[in-house]
Amino acid sequence: MTDGPMLADAVGLLSSGTPAHGLEAFRAAYPHARTRLVAQREEFDGSLHHALLIKDGAGAAISLSWCPDRALPWPLRGVHRAGEHLLLRVNGIDTPVARAIACLDFIWDESALADRLVSDSLVREELAQAREPLSDAALQEAMDAFRRARGLLTGAATRAWMERHRISHHELEELVALEAAVAALRSRVAAGRVESWFAEHGRQLDVARVARAEFVTEPVVPDPAGFLDAVERAFADGTARPGEVFATLRRGDLGEEMAERIFTAPPGTVAGPFKSEHGHLLVKVLAVEPAVLDETVRDLVERRIFRDWIERRRSTAKIEWFWGLAERTAGRGR
After folding, report:
1. Which residue from 21, 134, 146, 229 puts its CA 20 to 30 A from 160's CA?
2. pLDDT greater than 80 at residue 128
3. Which of 68, 84, 110 is the last residue of a domain?
4. CA distance 15 to 78
């Protein structure tokens, strides 16, 4: 960590003006150290400032930064203009960021959203340290896939989408490149592990194709042949909640008892009722299929392996929330 040539090369990298271009060569020269280049756009004058973090195997770290002559002075780095604390103004009424965050306090009851924010940070941390460069051909392929997934099949549709979301072409390329980088990271994490995971846990991906309905009060289980008619009548009289009737369920996404009853039910029978968040759920089983390691299931396996990898990183991460009630944020930090 106190290697003189390494620190001298690090300073040379930062003072080059384009440190991102020389980062891979620096890493190749010093493979024993993990490096991360941190870029920060200064809100005060728009200048771009870089710092280099160098970690050894024991977790110790050196932080290096370099400031050219007559650049933004150190005491002004991180300074924000007063207006930058505002999020919205309606009819002259200001909404500061702090007020908007207070209005979103319900996030702590939506653990999936809070967990996604943490996961995104962990993924970006890894990409900052070990992100493989994306070729022009790979970027174009990722862009085409991005557009197809959103039905943006013409240039006019793509431009309209960009205008609606207020993003430039450069910002769109950055978004697509990040998605492609995350997909590549997911494939690297899962490499060589898909078959063994599927052999051990593949049963979780078994499929049940069902018709289902959620009732406000506990329903009388109808005759299977009249299930859809019963659902229609219940919806018409207000005792069934609106929602998707036909669905594909994976065994691993259900509770243990529900999964057992649905996946052991003969096709054509009704399972339930099951207690749900808003009432009682009835399910008519139409077909049950064991999982097969095809392209779709392989993608699901990769995502589950990636999810487990993120959870392991989360268990050792230092997580700090800067808003919300302390007793609620503490639970999201574990």
Report:
1. 134
2. no
3. 68
4. 20
